[in-house]
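Posted in: Protein Modeling Q&A

I'm a second-year student putting together a small comparison for a lab meeting, and my supervisor asked me to include a predicted structure for UDP-glycosyltransferase 87A2. I've never done this before, so apologies if this is the wrong subforum. The sequence is pasted below exactly as I got it from our records. If anyone can share the structure token output, I'd also love a short note on what stands out.
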Amino acid sequence: MCTTDNQRNSSCHVLALPYPGRGHINPMLDLCSAVAQKSTDILITVVLTEEWISFIGSVRKPPNINFAAIPDVLPSELVRGADPRGFWTAVSTKMEEPVKRLLDQLRPPLAIVIADAFLIGRLTWQLGGTFR
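Accepted answer (user: helix_wrangler)
Welcome! Here is the predicted structure, written out as tokens:
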């Protein structure tokens, strides 16, 4: 987890949870960049798998955006096309616990969660209890 001055000075901490697949990560990063550039007192934490961070780790981003890694509990992006249903099942069942552990560690506390529409089902429903 990253610790920056932005975290101490932020008035709003946003969690961005993209679906971990091609065509979903970049649009979420574009949205986060647009929001982050509007106000420097917004801290955005984007949750990605370790594999995805290795793919895009050098991407330019505003200083108030941090990447937070969850373990590679999903099939690799490089082979997921061979079994799309298996990948979807893994996202629905294997991401929950690592994301919950990450949420317990994030500071400052979250104010907003932006989740990909593909995650609005089981995963975000289960994580909703984390914020109550």
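A couple of things worth pointing out for your meeting: The chain has one domain: 5-131. The CA atoms of residues 105 and 122 lie 22 Å apart.
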